[in-house]
Amino acid sequence: NAGVMQNPRHLVRRRGQEARLRCSPMKGHSHVYWYRQLPEEGLKFMVYLQKENIIDESGMPKERFSAEFPKEGPSILRIQQVVRGDSAAYFCASSPLDVTAINTEAFFGQGTRLTVV
Amino acid sequence: DQQVKQNSPSLSVQEGRISILNCDYTNSMFDYFLWYKKYPAEGPTFLISISSIKDKNEDGRFTVFLNKSAKHLSLHIVPSQPGDSAVYFCAVRGADGLTFGKGTHLIIQP
Predict the structure, then answer these.
(1) CA angle at A45 for the pair A50 and B51, rounded to the nearest 5°
(2) B25-40 pLDDT, tens per residue?
């Protein structure tokens, strides 16, 4: 049973380009969470998705950032017109159930390190 | 305003001794508490958790203690081993999901 898979592991983008980060949850997990870790910071919640639905996007910047989790395929975190401040490690986690509803933990992928040059 | 605080950015412990990592939280409504361990360039991995109805949970060398009145959580590692060198994140679960602290970098010295 493969863990949470994120790709690419490293992504370099020039300012103004688009970044697409992919996350395939663990088998049987339908709940996906995206976190961002800035240098010297902890993990900041961005968005919580279930299949085809955004449940909570309170941590997402209002502009340029979007996320989806289609019925088929991985969850995608999309950052349009990237700026230097978007450089960070982006982690995806998945869980079999809503992590707020029952005693379950989220399992993390290895992350995508985005560098904006 | 930080809901979860790990006040020690780093901690150095001699191999074989006890490592104690601390975490303070602000909201008494949090009902589930977790510790994650993270190596460089890897994602966090779940380590141990505790429900608010308990005050202690033990798993091998790892024990988590919960003091609800003080809103304080701690992770004890006994004995500490070189492979324990990593960043440890405390996380709390509330209505908004998981909230993480900034992490404590544990360094185990030989």
Answers:
(1) 85
(2) 998 888 889 999 989 8
In this complex, how many residue pairs, one in chain A and one in chain B, have their CB atoms less than 8 Å apart? 60
Answer yes or no: are the C-beta atoms of B91 and B35 closer than 8 Å: yes
Buried b (16+ CB within 10 A) or exposed e, B74-89: bbbbeebeeebbbbbb
In degrees and rounded to multiples of 5, residue A6 shows phi and psi of -120, 140
pLDDT tens digits for chain A (117 residues)?
Answer: 578 999 999 999 999 999 999 999 998 888 999 999 887 777 888 999 998 899 889 889 989 999 999 988 999 999 999 999 999 999 999 988 766 555 567 789 999 999 999
Does residue A34 sit at the B interface (CB-CB below 8 Å)? no
Nearest to A42 among B32, B42, B100 (CB): B100
List helix spans (H) across B18-99: none
Give the largest Cα separation in chain B, rounded: 42
Q: Which two tokens stand for residue B105?
A: 């970098």
- The backbone torsions φ and ψ at residue A85, rounded to the nearest 5 degrees and listed phi first, read -65, -10
Cis omega before residue B82 (within 30°)? no
